[in-house]
Amino acid sequence: MVKTKTKKAKKRYLTLFFFDRTVPRELYYSIQRRLNIMGYGAVWQPNSAIKNVRSYEKIIEYCIRRDIRVIATFDKKFEYTTADMERKIKILKLKGGRQKTINKIIGKLFQVYHALKQVES
Asked: What would the pLDDT profile of 55-79 be if each residue is shown by its tens digit?
């Protein structure tokens, strides 16, 4: 009798947030670790399917297709291209860089997400 190994089911996180290429690697992974503990996930542009894309419109379309609601960026020029996109997704422009604590950034992410959810309801 041969025992076969069964694969453990991979945990799926609810992905609500997208971090573009301007967010530093260490900051992204620190935030992602905390989000995973809470059962949420995040996507970082250099690890995504659109890693070399610079167009804001294509990034926003990617997020809408994947049902990601909040884009976090340090880029001050990141803007919506149409009013329709503004209703479906929110752009959070981070300030202060690494001086802000991870908890403050996560708090701001969820604040923006819940505000977007209330507008939709």
From this structure: 999 999 999 999 999 999 999 888 8
**CATH no. for residue 63?**
3.40.50.10850
Distance in angstroms (rounded) separating the CA atoms of residues 121 and 116: 9
Total domains, the chain: 1
Whole-model pTM: value is 0.84
Cα distance between residue 116 and residue 111, in whole Å: 9
